[in-house]
Amino acid sequence: MAFRISIGPKEDYKLVVLVRNDVKMGKGKVAAQVGHAAVECALYAEKKDRKSFDAWYNSGQAKIVLKVDSMEQLTEYMKIARGNGLHTAVITDAGRTQIEPGTVTCMGIGPAPVSEIDKVTGDLKML
């Protein structure tokens, strides 16, 4: 007789990108910056946290874009995320198009379990 042990429901994973609302960027620029953050987070996880990468990849690769009002607010969320053991990727623009070189535009968080990311970013609004 075989027994199956249930460990509970499997949680989905997601990757979140926080975009600075005070940096005036066109829609295409925002999309590019969000893409940089998502790729950076995914590549990091693929190398350094394969369990999270596989769980995120196999659960649909959810990517959520939220807004913050300032660099100060982005920094606070970075500290909280890192304090909770979440990977972050801060994106700095090269300054070739719309904004000054070295401007921090956004930050990726994850991929990680939805519940862990929501503890940090659950109060933010979508972009």
What does this structure look like?
The protein is α+β, with helices and mostly antiparallel strands and 127 residues long. The protein has one domain (19-121): 3-Layer(aba) Sandwich (Bit1). Helix content is 41%, strand content 24%. It has four helices and four strands. It has a four-stranded mixed sheet, with helices on both faces. Helix 1 crosses helix 2. The longest helix has 22 residues, at 27-48. The radius of gyration is 16 Å and the shape is globular. Mean pLDDT is 93; it is low at 1-8.
TL;DR?
Helices cover 41% and strands 24% of the residues. The protein is an alpha+beta fold and 127 residues long.
Distance between the termini: 53 Å
CATH top level class name:
Alpha Beta
What is the helix/strand order? EHHEHEEH
Please tell me what the overall shape is. Answer: globular
Count of helical stretches: 4
Q: Could you name the CATH topology?
A: Bit1
Percent of residues in beta strands: 15-25%
Task: Name the CATH superfamily classification.
Answer: Bit1
Helix proportion: 40-55%
Number of domains: 1
User: For the report, how would you describe the main beta sheet?
Assistant: 4 strands, mixed
**Helices and strands: which structural class?**
alpha+beta
Q: Give the strand line-up of the largest sheet.
A: 2-1-4-3
Mean pLDDT: 93
CATH architecture: 3-Layer(aba) Sandwich
Radius of gyration based on Cα positions: 16 Å
How many strand units? Answer: 4
Q: Are there runs of 5+ residues with pLDDT below 50, and where? A: 1-8
